[in-house]
Amino acid sequence: MTHIAIRHLTKEYGAATILDNVSVELPDHEFCVVLGPSGAGKTTLLRILLSQEAATRGEVLIDGKPIDSEPQPDRGVVFQRYSVFPHKTVLANVMMGPQLAAAPVTGRMWGQKRRALRERALALLDEVGLAAHLDKYPTQLSGGMQQRLAIAQALIMEPKVLLLDEPFGALDQSTKKAMHRLILDLWQKNKMTIVMVTHDIQEAFTLGTRILMVDKRRRDPQAPEAYGSTITEDIRLDPAKKPPLSVVEGEGDGEDAHSMRAIFAQWRARAGDAVISDEVAEGLKAVV
Ligand SMILES: Nc1ncnc2c1ncn2[C@@H]1O[C@H](COP(=O)(O)OP(=O)(O)OP(=O)(O)O)[C@@H](O)[C@H]1O
Predict the structure, then answer these.
(1) Is 18 a pocket residue for ligand 1 (Cβ < 6 Å)?
(2) What is the pTM of this model?
(3) CA atoms within a 13 Å half-sphere pointing along the CA-CB vector of 236
(4) What does the pLDDT look like over 234-253, one tens digit per residue?
């Protein structure tokens, strides 16, 4: 069970307010997708969830306990790029995290423990489709393969929460689709709670059980940094009743709330209220 509670979270950098009083509860096994304009504070929110940044005010609780002030293996992360070790092979990359956790200085592990870890790493690499590339280095892999490796690297730590910061943003469409199938499969199997940032509305609808829009509610043209972002839309999607993705068309790129609302409206018009939960239908009445 992994329940995330974000309570009255505010983040300021000097005089600039980035996040302003953000509160949300994410139940166990939620696949939460965060959309919002560039600079809205999406990555900042992920970094706070990861303890790479401290909140100015407010708190984050996982299963009722405030998160540790340092990054811990209970929360894994995959960024858009550069999260694998370039000088290590695929297999060594995946074994590295548990080795460093067991022996922070040397990163070495011996005997039975090492054999067990190797077995686990091999199974995971098989799951993400990299079993045939164990001895390659990241530069010898395609972008999609590098992201598969980054996902395996995060999952070997058995995180309760997986944080994804535009992990598929740099991939071509067909690789992206394959990665979507993979991440949904891993999410089901591993029963983790996922929080993912993306600019891609189609991706949000494909993957999410919950979509949060992060944006400013108030703007002062004279003082653009005066107000921070908060959650302006909170949509629950019932995975059992999702329409085919072809229903989610539109030009929106997740950059603005307006295009997202237009897509919700279009989705409802084509698919009907039956495909969305009552709660979502209520939410839609409010925004459309
Ligand atoms: N360490 C920092 N010091 C000062 N300002 C920062 C710092 N980190 C982020 N910011 C500012 O916080 C704001 C939000 O940045 P963040 O990266 O969270 O936005 P984002 O929504 O993820 O944007 P994008 O979609 O473009 O990636 C930006 O204005 C950024 O300049």
Answers:
(1) yes
(2) 0.85
(3) 13
(4) 888 876 666 555 545 544 45
